[in-house]
Amino acid sequence: MSRSDDRALHPQATIRSQLMLPRNHRAAKWADVPDEQWYDWKWQLKNRINSVAELEEVLVLTESERKGASAEGIFRLDITPYFASLMDREDPTCPVRRQVIPTEEELQPFTSMMEDSLAEDKHSPVPGLVHRYPDRVLMLVTTQCASYCRYCTRSRIVGDPTETFNPAEYEQQLNYLRNTPQVRDVLLSGGDPLTLAPKVLGRLLAELRKIPHIEIIRIGTRVPVFMPMRVTQELCDTLAEHHPLWMNIHVNHPKEITPEVADACDRLTRAGVPLGNQSVLLRGVNDHAVIMQKLVRELVKIRVRPYYIYQCDLVHGAGHLRTTVSKGLEIMESLRGHTSGYSVPTYVVDAPGGGGKIPVAPNYVLSHSPEKLILRNFEGYIAAYSEPTDYTGPDMAVPEDWVRKEPGQSGIYGLMEGERISIEPKEFSESRHRPGSVQHRLNSREDKWAAHGIGAQTDHAGHMDAGVSDTAPDGMVEAPQPVSGD
Q: Which of 61, 142, 162, 393 could bond to 191 as cystine, CB 3.0-4.6 Å?
Protein backbone atom coordinates (compact mmCIF):
# COMPACT_ATOMS: atom_id res chain seq x y z
CA MET A 1 0.00 0.00 0.00
CA SER A 2 1.37 3.41 -0.90
CA ARG A 3 1.71 6.16 1.63
CA SER A 4 -1.05 8.18 -0.07
CA ASP A 5 -3.43 5.19 0.14
CA ASP A 6 -2.69 4.88 3.86
CA ARG A 7 -3.72 8.42 4.78
CA ALA A 8 -6.79 8.68 7.01
CA LEU A 9 -9.53 10.50 5.10
CA HIS A 10 -12.16 12.60 6.84
CA PRO A 11 -15.39 10.55 6.85
CA GLN A 12 -17.22 13.31 4.94
CA ALA A 13 -14.43 14.05 2.45
CA THR A 14 -15.47 14.06 -1.21
CA ILE A 15 -13.64 14.54 -4.49
CA ARG A 16 -16.48 16.88 -5.49
CA SER A 17 -15.46 19.52 -2.95
CA GLN A 18 -11.99 19.81 -4.52
CA LEU A 19 -13.07 20.37 -8.13
CA MET A 20 -12.92 23.63 -10.05
CA LEU A 21 -16.28 25.21 -10.86
CA PRO A 22 -17.87 26.69 -14.02
CA ARG A 23 -18.69 30.31 -14.73
CA ASN A 24 -21.57 31.89 -12.82
CA HIS A 25 -21.70 29.13 -10.23
CA ARG A 26 -24.00 30.21 -7.40
CA ALA A 27 -25.36 28.79 -4.19
CA ALA A 28 -29.12 28.24 -4.27
CA LYS A 29 -29.64 31.26 -1.99
CA TRP A 30 -28.58 33.59 -4.81
CA ALA A 31 -29.80 31.63 -7.83
CA ASP A 32 -32.38 34.27 -8.79
CA VAL A 33 -30.20 37.37 -8.30
CA PRO A 34 -30.06 39.26 -11.64
CA ASP A 35 -26.65 39.28 -13.32
CA GLU A 36 -26.41 43.06 -13.16
CA GLN A 37 -26.52 42.81 -9.36
CA TRP A 38 -24.42 39.64 -9.01
CA TYR A 39 -21.57 41.14 -11.04
CA ASP A 40 -21.73 44.48 -9.19
CA TRP A 41 -18.93 44.55 -6.62
CA LYS A 42 -20.80 47.01 -4.42
CA TRP A 43 -23.77 44.60 -4.27
CA GLN A 44 -21.37 41.81 -3.28
CA LEU A 45 -20.02 43.87 -0.38
CA LYS A 46 -23.47 44.89 0.81
CA ASN A 47 -24.76 41.30 0.77
CA ARG A 48 -21.94 39.51 2.57
CA ILE A 49 -22.98 36.77 4.99
CA ASN A 50 -21.76 36.92 8.58
CA SER A 51 -24.16 35.11 10.92
CA VAL A 52 -24.93 31.50 11.79
CA ALA A 53 -28.43 31.89 10.35
CA GLU A 54 -27.05 33.15 7.02
CA LEU A 55 -24.38 30.45 6.92
CA GLU A 56 -27.04 27.78 7.44
CA GLU A 57 -28.83 29.01 4.31
CA VAL A 58 -25.72 28.07 2.34
CA LEU A 59 -24.08 25.23 4.33
CA VAL A 60 -24.91 22.24 6.47
CA LEU A 61 -22.81 23.42 9.41
CA THR A 62 -20.88 21.04 11.64
CA GLU A 63 -21.19 21.45 15.39
CA SER A 64 -17.63 22.84 15.46
CA GLU A 65 -18.46 25.42 12.78
CA ARG A 66 -21.64 26.43 14.60
CA LYS A 67 -19.74 26.93 17.86
CA GLY A 68 -16.99 28.87 16.14
CA ALA A 69 -19.31 31.17 14.22
CA SER A 70 -21.40 31.96 17.29
CA ALA A 71 -18.52 32.43 19.75
CA GLU A 72 -17.95 35.79 21.42
CA GLY A 73 -14.91 37.79 20.38
CA ILE A 74 -13.95 35.79 17.28
CA PHE A 75 -12.12 37.39 14.39
CA ARG A 76 -14.52 39.08 11.99
CA LEU A 77 -16.72 36.87 9.80
CA ASP A 78 -17.79 38.23 6.41
CA ILE A 79 -17.97 36.33 3.10
CA THR A 80 -19.04 37.67 -0.29
CA PRO A 81 -21.89 35.77 -1.97
CA TYR A 82 -19.55 35.01 -4.88
CA PHE A 83 -16.91 33.34 -2.66
CA ALA A 84 -19.51 31.68 -0.43
CA SER A 85 -20.93 30.02 -3.55
CA LEU A 86 -17.64 28.19 -4.05
CA MET A 87 -18.05 26.36 -0.73
CA ASP A 88 -19.37 22.79 -0.80
CA ARG A 89 -22.66 22.66 1.05
CA GLU A 90 -22.20 19.24 2.71
CA ASP A 91 -18.46 18.60 2.83
CA PRO A 92 -16.67 20.33 5.75
CA THR A 93 -13.28 19.46 4.17
CA CYS A 94 -14.01 21.83 1.27
CA PRO A 95 -10.82 23.91 0.89
CA VAL A 96 -12.74 27.15 0.36
CA ARG A 97 -14.91 26.53 3.38
CA ARG A 98 -11.95 25.82 5.65
CA GLN A 99 -10.38 29.19 4.82
CA VAL A 100 -13.30 31.40 5.79
CA ILE A 101 -15.62 29.50 8.18
CA PRO A 102 -14.62 29.66 11.85
CA THR A 103 -14.53 26.48 13.93
CA GLU A 104 -14.24 25.93 17.65
CA GLU A 105 -10.56 24.99 17.13
CA GLU A 106 -9.94 28.64 16.30
CA LEU A 107 -10.54 29.45 19.96
CA GLN A 108 -7.76 27.16 21.22
CA PRO A 109 -4.38 28.67 22.21
CA PHE A 110 -1.19 27.01 21.00
CA THR A 111 2.51 27.20 21.85
CA SER A 112 4.20 30.40 20.59
CA MET A 113 0.90 32.00 19.56
CA MET A 114 1.14 35.80 19.38
CA GLU A 115 -1.06 38.78 18.61
CA ASP A 116 1.57 40.38 16.34
CA SER A 117 3.77 37.40 15.48
CA LEU A 118 5.85 39.30 12.89
CA ALA A 119 6.46 42.28 15.21
CA GLU A 120 5.15 44.62 12.53
CA ASP A 121 4.04 47.22 15.04
CA LYS A 122 7.54 47.19 16.57
CA HIS A 123 8.95 48.23 13.17
CA SER A 124 6.32 50.91 12.57
CA PRO A 125 7.77 54.46 12.51
CA VAL A 126 4.34 56.06 11.89
CA PRO A 127 0.83 54.55 12.07
CA GLY A 128 0.28 51.96 9.34
CA LEU A 129 3.82 51.99 7.95
CA VAL A 130 6.14 49.02 8.58
CA HIS A 131 9.81 49.63 7.74
CA ARG A 132 11.38 46.22 8.34
CA TYR A 133 13.68 45.91 5.32
CA PRO A 134 16.27 48.57 4.41
CA ASP A 135 14.92 49.74 1.03
CA ARG A 136 11.22 48.91 1.13
CA VAL A 137 8.19 49.47 3.32
CA LEU A 138 4.78 47.98 3.95
CA MET A 139 2.06 50.64 3.78
CA LEU A 140 -1.20 49.62 5.45
CA VAL A 141 -4.00 51.70 3.95
CA THR A 142 -7.15 50.03 5.30
CA THR A 143 -8.27 47.37 7.77
CA GLN A 144 -11.17 46.21 5.61
CA CYS A 145 -11.29 43.17 3.31
CA ALA A 146 -13.90 41.75 0.95
CA SER A 147 -13.93 38.51 2.99
CA TYR A 148 -11.83 37.47 5.99
CA CYS A 149 -9.31 34.61 6.13
CA ARG A 150 -9.32 32.66 9.40
CA TYR A 151 -5.50 32.65 9.48
CA CYS A 152 -5.06 36.41 8.97
CA THR A 153 -1.64 37.65 10.11
CA ARG A 154 -3.09 41.07 11.01
CA SER A 155 -6.24 39.89 12.77
CA ARG A 156 -5.23 42.25 15.60
CA ILE A 157 -6.49 45.18 13.47
CA VAL A 158 -8.01 43.78 10.27
CA GLY A 159 -11.80 43.79 10.19
CA ASP A 160 -12.06 46.40 12.94
CA PRO A 161 -13.43 49.66 11.48
CA THR A 162 -12.19 51.60 14.51
CA GLU A 163 -8.59 50.64 13.62
CA THR A 164 -8.70 51.80 10.00
CA PHE A 165 -6.42 54.56 8.74
CA ASN A 166 -7.55 58.14 8.21
CA PRO A 167 -6.34 60.91 5.87
CA ALA A 168 -4.11 62.42 8.56
CA GLU A 169 -2.35 59.08 9.00
CA TYR A 170 -2.00 58.71 5.23
CA GLU A 171 -0.21 62.05 5.27
CA GLN A 172 2.11 60.88 8.07
CA GLN A 173 2.95 57.81 6.00
CA LEU A 174 3.61 59.87 2.89
CA ASN A 175 5.74 62.41 4.78
CA TYR A 176 7.88 59.62 6.21
CA LEU A 177 8.41 58.26 2.69
CA ARG A 178 9.20 61.71 1.28
CA ASN A 179 11.87 62.15 3.95
CA THR A 180 13.38 58.65 3.74
CA PRO A 181 15.27 58.43 0.45
CA GLN A 182 16.53 54.91 1.07
CA VAL A 183 13.01 53.57 0.35
CA ARG A 184 12.65 52.54 -3.29
CA ASP A 185 9.76 50.03 -3.05
CA VAL A 186 6.35 50.49 -1.38
CA LEU A 187 3.91 47.62 -0.82
CA LEU A 188 0.28 48.66 -0.27
CA SER A 189 -1.64 46.22 1.87
CA GLY A 190 -4.00 46.22 4.81
CA GLY A 191 -6.73 44.96 4.88
CA ASP A 192 -7.14 45.04 1.16
CA PRO A 193 -6.28 48.19 -0.81
CA LEU A 194 -8.76 47.28 -3.57
CA THR A 195 -11.67 47.74 -1.15
CA LEU A 196 -10.84 51.45 -0.95
CA ALA A 197 -12.95 53.93 -2.85
CA PRO A 198 -11.38 54.35 -6.32
CA LYS A 199 -10.63 58.04 -5.73
CA VAL A 200 -8.85 57.32 -2.43
CA LEU A 201 -6.72 54.58 -3.98
CA GLY A 202 -5.95 56.79 -6.99
CA ARG A 203 -4.83 59.68 -4.79
CA LEU A 204 -2.52 57.48 -2.73
CA LEU A 205 -0.91 56.06 -5.86
CA ALA A 206 -0.54 59.55 -7.34
CA GLU A 207 1.15 60.88 -4.19
CA LEU A 208 3.55 57.93 -4.10
CA ARG A 209 4.43 58.49 -7.76
CA LYS A 210 5.44 62.08 -6.96
CA ILE A 211 8.23 60.85 -4.67
CA PRO A 212 11.29 60.62 -6.92
CA HIS A 213 13.19 57.91 -5.05
CA ILE A 214 10.25 55.45 -5.03
CA GLU A 215 10.92 53.18 -7.99
CA ILE A 216 8.10 50.65 -7.80
CA ILE A 217 4.73 50.28 -6.12
CA ARG A 218 3.23 46.92 -5.25
CA ILE A 219 -0.28 45.97 -4.15
CA GLY A 220 -1.13 42.89 -2.11
CA THR A 221 -4.76 41.92 -2.60
CA ARG A 222 -7.25 39.09 -2.41
CA VAL A 223 -10.08 41.06 -4.00
CA PRO A 224 -9.60 39.46 -7.45
CA VAL A 225 -10.25 36.11 -5.72
CA PHE A 226 -12.93 37.07 -3.18
CA MET A 227 -14.73 39.50 -5.51
CA PRO A 228 -13.37 39.44 -9.10
CA MET A 229 -16.11 41.78 -10.31
CA ARG A 230 -14.27 44.59 -8.49
CA VAL A 231 -11.56 44.46 -11.18
CA THR A 232 -13.36 46.80 -13.54
CA GLN A 233 -11.89 48.54 -16.55
CA GLU A 234 -12.06 51.78 -14.55
CA LEU A 235 -9.88 50.26 -11.82
CA CYS A 236 -7.42 48.89 -14.40
CA ASP A 237 -7.16 52.31 -16.04
CA THR A 238 -6.41 53.90 -12.63
CA LEU A 239 -3.67 51.36 -11.93
CA ALA A 240 -2.16 51.78 -15.39
CA GLU A 241 -1.59 55.49 -14.72
CA HIS A 242 0.97 54.71 -12.01
CA HIS A 243 3.42 52.22 -13.51
CA PRO A 244 5.69 50.53 -12.69
CA LEU A 245 3.06 48.85 -10.51
CA TRP A 246 3.07 45.18 -9.54
CA MET A 247 0.41 43.07 -7.85
CA ASN A 248 0.35 39.87 -5.81
CA ILE A 249 -2.94 38.06 -5.46
CA HIS A 250 -3.67 35.31 -2.93
CA VAL A 251 -4.93 31.92 -4.14
CA ASN A 252 -4.52 28.83 -1.97
CA HIS A 253 -6.38 26.13 -3.92
CA PRO A 254 -7.17 25.54 -7.62
CA LYS A 255 -10.90 25.65 -6.84
CA GLU A 256 -10.55 29.41 -6.30
CA ILE A 257 -9.45 29.90 -9.92
CA THR A 258 -12.81 30.36 -11.65
CA PRO A 259 -13.50 31.82 -15.11
CA GLU A 260 -14.37 35.08 -13.32
CA VAL A 261 -10.97 35.16 -11.60
CA ALA A 262 -9.27 34.37 -14.92
CA ASP A 263 -11.12 37.30 -16.53
CA ALA A 264 -10.08 39.67 -13.71
CA CYS A 265 -6.43 38.63 -14.05
CA ASP A 266 -6.62 39.06 -17.81
CA ARG A 267 -7.87 42.64 -17.41
CA LEU A 268 -5.04 43.40 -14.99
CA THR A 269 -2.31 41.94 -17.19
CA ARG A 270 -3.68 43.78 -20.23
CA ALA A 271 -3.37 46.97 -18.16
CA GLY A 272 0.33 46.19 -17.81
CA VAL A 273 0.22 44.94 -14.22
CA PRO A 274 2.53 41.93 -13.67
CA LEU A 275 0.82 39.40 -11.38
CA GLY A 276 2.26 37.07 -8.77
CA ASN A 277 0.57 34.79 -6.29
CA GLN A 278 1.17 34.27 -2.59
CA SER A 279 -0.22 31.11 -1.03
CA VAL A 280 -0.24 30.11 2.61
CA LEU A 281 0.42 26.45 3.41
CA LEU A 282 -2.73 25.39 5.26
CA ARG A 283 -3.69 22.10 6.87
CA GLY A 284 -6.57 20.48 5.02
CA VAL A 285 -6.51 23.08 2.24
CA ASN A 286 -3.35 22.68 0.18
CA ASP A 287 -0.96 20.54 2.26
CA HIS A 288 -0.86 17.88 -0.45
CA ALA A 289 1.72 17.74 -3.25
CA VAL A 290 -0.85 16.95 -5.95
CA ILE A 291 -3.05 19.89 -4.95
CA MET A 292 -0.12 22.32 -4.93
CA GLN A 293 1.09 21.01 -8.31
CA LYS A 294 -2.37 21.60 -9.75
CA LEU A 295 -2.53 25.08 -8.20
CA VAL A 296 0.74 26.33 -9.70
CA ARG A 297 -0.14 24.94 -13.13
CA GLU A 298 -3.52 26.66 -13.11
CA LEU A 299 -1.95 29.94 -11.99
CA VAL A 300 0.51 30.15 -14.86
CA LYS A 301 -2.32 29.37 -17.29
CA ILE A 302 -3.93 32.69 -16.29
CA ARG A 303 -0.55 34.51 -16.41
CA VAL A 304 -0.01 34.63 -12.65
CA ARG A 305 3.49 33.70 -11.48
CA PRO A 306 3.64 31.64 -8.26
CA TYR A 307 5.72 33.89 -5.98
CA TYR A 308 5.65 32.68 -2.38
CA ILE A 309 4.34 29.79 -0.33
CA TYR A 310 4.21 31.04 3.25
CA GLN A 311 4.44 28.86 6.30
CA CYS A 312 1.38 29.77 8.38
CA ASP A 313 2.25 32.43 10.95
CA LEU A 314 2.06 31.97 14.72
CA VAL A 315 -0.97 34.23 14.96
CA HIS A 316 -3.78 33.50 17.39
CA GLY A 317 -6.70 31.62 15.86
CA ALA A 318 -4.59 29.86 13.24
CA GLY A 319 -3.23 26.91 15.21
CA HIS A 320 -5.59 24.35 13.66
CA LEU A 321 -4.53 25.39 10.15
CA ARG A 322 -0.77 25.10 10.67
CA THR A 323 1.36 22.38 9.11
CA THR A 324 4.93 21.30 9.78
CA VAL A 325 7.78 22.89 7.86
CA SER A 326 8.77 19.38 6.79
CA LYS A 327 5.46 19.14 4.93
CA GLY A 328 6.35 22.35 3.10
CA LEU A 329 9.74 20.94 2.13
CA GLU A 330 8.06 17.78 0.88
CA ILE A 331 5.79 19.89 -1.31
CA MET A 332 8.73 21.90 -2.65
CA GLU A 333 10.46 18.63 -3.48
CA SER A 334 7.38 17.71 -5.53
CA LEU A 335 7.51 20.96 -7.53
CA ARG A 336 11.15 21.59 -8.51
CA GLY A 337 11.90 19.55 -11.63
CA HIS A 338 8.37 18.19 -11.77
CA THR A 339 7.02 21.36 -13.34
CA SER A 340 8.48 24.37 -15.12
CA GLY A 341 10.62 26.85 -13.20
CA TYR A 342 8.07 29.63 -13.77
CA SER A 343 5.65 27.53 -11.71
CA VAL A 344 7.90 27.04 -8.69
CA PRO A 345 7.39 29.58 -5.87
CA THR A 346 9.78 30.30 -3.01
CA TYR A 347 8.81 28.64 0.26
CA VAL A 348 9.39 31.02 3.19
CA VAL A 349 9.01 31.16 6.93
CA ASP A 350 8.29 34.70 8.11
CA ALA A 351 10.50 34.65 11.20
CA PRO A 352 8.66 35.25 14.49
CA GLY A 353 9.61 38.47 16.22
CA GLY A 354 10.28 40.43 13.04
CA GLY A 355 13.15 38.51 11.44
CA GLY A 356 11.57 38.77 8.01
CA LYS A 357 11.10 36.14 5.33
CA ILE A 358 13.58 33.27 5.40
CA PRO A 359 13.57 30.99 2.35
CA VAL A 360 13.47 27.28 3.11
CA ALA A 361 14.31 24.71 0.43
CA PRO A 362 15.45 21.12 0.01
CA ASN A 363 19.22 20.73 -0.05
CA TYR A 364 20.54 20.11 -3.56
CA VAL A 365 24.26 20.59 -2.72
CA LEU A 366 25.56 17.35 -1.20
CA SER A 367 29.21 18.31 -0.86
CA HIS A 368 31.81 20.69 -2.26
CA SER A 369 35.54 21.27 -2.45
CA PRO A 370 37.57 24.01 -4.15
CA GLU A 371 37.53 21.97 -7.37
CA LYS A 372 34.15 20.22 -7.41
CA LEU A 373 30.53 20.64 -6.39
CA ILE A 374 28.44 17.50 -5.78
CA LEU A 375 24.80 18.10 -6.67
CA ARG A 376 21.64 16.07 -6.83
CA ASN A 377 18.53 16.74 -8.90
CA PHE A 378 14.83 16.11 -8.28
CA GLU A 379 15.18 12.50 -9.48
CA GLY A 380 18.03 11.69 -7.14
CA TYR A 381 20.59 11.87 -9.96
CA ILE A 382 23.97 12.86 -8.45
CA ALA A 383 26.56 14.74 -10.49
CA ALA A 384 29.95 16.39 -9.97
CA TYR A 385 30.31 19.91 -11.34
CA SER A 386 33.92 20.96 -11.94
CA GLU A 387 34.75 24.45 -10.74
CA PRO A 388 37.09 26.66 -12.80
CA THR A 389 40.58 26.64 -11.32
CA ASP A 390 41.59 30.05 -12.69
CA TYR A 391 38.61 32.11 -11.49
CA THR A 392 39.66 35.23 -9.59
CA GLY A 393 36.38 37.14 -9.37
CA PRO A 394 34.81 40.02 -11.30
CA ASP A 395 37.13 42.58 -12.91
CA MET A 396 34.66 45.18 -14.14
CA ALA A 397 34.20 48.69 -12.72
CA VAL A 398 30.90 49.29 -10.91
CA PRO A 399 29.41 52.81 -10.67
CA GLU A 400 29.64 54.01 -7.09
CA ASP A 401 26.07 55.29 -7.06
CA TRP A 402 24.76 51.76 -7.73
CA VAL A 403 25.98 50.64 -4.31
CA ARG A 404 23.34 50.75 -1.57
CA LYS A 405 25.01 52.03 1.61
CA GLU A 406 22.14 52.71 3.98
CA PRO A 407 21.99 50.83 7.32
CA GLY A 408 20.66 47.29 7.05
CA GLN A 409 22.05 46.45 3.60
CA SER A 410 25.01 44.49 4.95
CA GLY A 411 24.12 41.32 6.85
CA ILE A 412 25.61 38.01 5.71
CA TYR A 413 26.62 39.55 2.40
CA GLY A 414 28.71 42.03 4.37
CA LEU A 415 30.69 39.16 5.88
CA MET A 416 31.43 37.84 2.40
CA GLU A 417 32.48 41.31 1.23
CA GLY A 418 34.88 41.79 4.14
CA GLU A 419 32.94 44.52 5.93
CA ARG A 420 33.28 42.64 9.23
CA ILE A 421 34.55 39.35 10.61
CA SER A 422 31.40 38.34 12.51
CA ILE A 423 27.88 39.33 13.50
CA GLU A 424 27.19 39.20 17.22
CA PRO A 425 23.83 38.48 18.84
CA LYS A 426 22.89 41.15 21.37
CA GLU A 427 23.74 38.90 24.32
CA PHE A 428 27.14 37.78 22.98
CA SER A 429 29.21 40.57 24.55
CA GLU A 430 27.49 40.00 27.90
CA SER A 431 28.80 36.42 27.95
CA ARG A 432 32.36 37.78 28.15
CA HIS A 433 31.68 39.68 31.38
CA ARG A 434 31.43 36.96 34.00
CA PRO A 435 30.88 37.66 37.71
CA GLY A 436 34.24 38.25 39.36
CA SER A 437 36.08 38.95 36.11
CA VAL A 438 38.62 41.79 36.01
CA GLN A 439 40.45 43.64 33.30
CA HIS A 440 44.02 42.36 33.04
CA ARG A 441 47.05 42.44 30.76
CA LEU A 442 45.70 39.72 28.46
CA ASN A 443 42.18 41.07 27.86
CA SER A 444 42.69 44.84 27.89
CA ARG A 445 43.69 45.49 24.26
CA GLU A 446 40.71 45.57 21.86
CA ASP A 447 42.98 45.75 18.83
CA LYS A 448 43.82 42.07 19.36
CA TRP A 449 40.52 41.19 17.78
CA ALA A 450 40.60 43.65 14.86
CA ALA A 451 40.88 41.51 11.70
CA HIS A 452 43.44 42.91 9.26
CA GLY A 453 41.81 44.25 6.09
CA ILE A 454 38.29 43.76 7.42
CA GLY A 455 35.77 46.49 8.27
CA ALA A 456 36.93 49.74 9.89
CA GLN A 457 40.62 50.49 9.32
CA THR A 458 43.20 52.61 11.17
CA ASP A 459 44.81 55.48 9.30
CA HIS A 460 48.48 56.54 9.64
CA ALA A 461 47.66 58.76 12.62
CA GLY A 462 46.10 55.82 14.46
CA HIS A 463 42.49 56.99 14.00
CA MET A 464 39.74 54.58 13.05
CA ASP A 465 37.84 55.29 9.83
CA ALA A 466 34.07 55.50 10.17
CA GLY A 467 32.39 52.34 9.04
CA VAL A 468 31.14 48.97 10.14
CA SER A 469 32.76 47.44 13.21
CA ASP A 470 34.34 44.02 12.96
CA THR A 471 31.75 42.52 15.26
CA ALA A 472 28.91 45.02 15.22
CA PRO A 473 25.95 43.53 17.16
CA ASP A 474 23.22 42.18 14.90
CA GLY A 475 24.97 43.48 11.81
CA MET A 476 24.33 47.13 12.68
CA VAL A 477 26.67 49.89 11.61
CA GLU A 478 28.33 52.16 14.16
CA ALA A 479 26.94 55.33 12.61
CA PRO A 480 24.31 56.13 9.95
CA GLN A 481 25.69 55.76 6.44
CA PRO A 482 25.01 58.16 3.56
CA VAL A 483 22.46 57.00 1.04
CA SER A 484 23.63 56.64 -2.55
CA GLY A 485 21.83 55.89 -5.75
CA ASP A 486 18.68 57.96 -5.06
A: 142
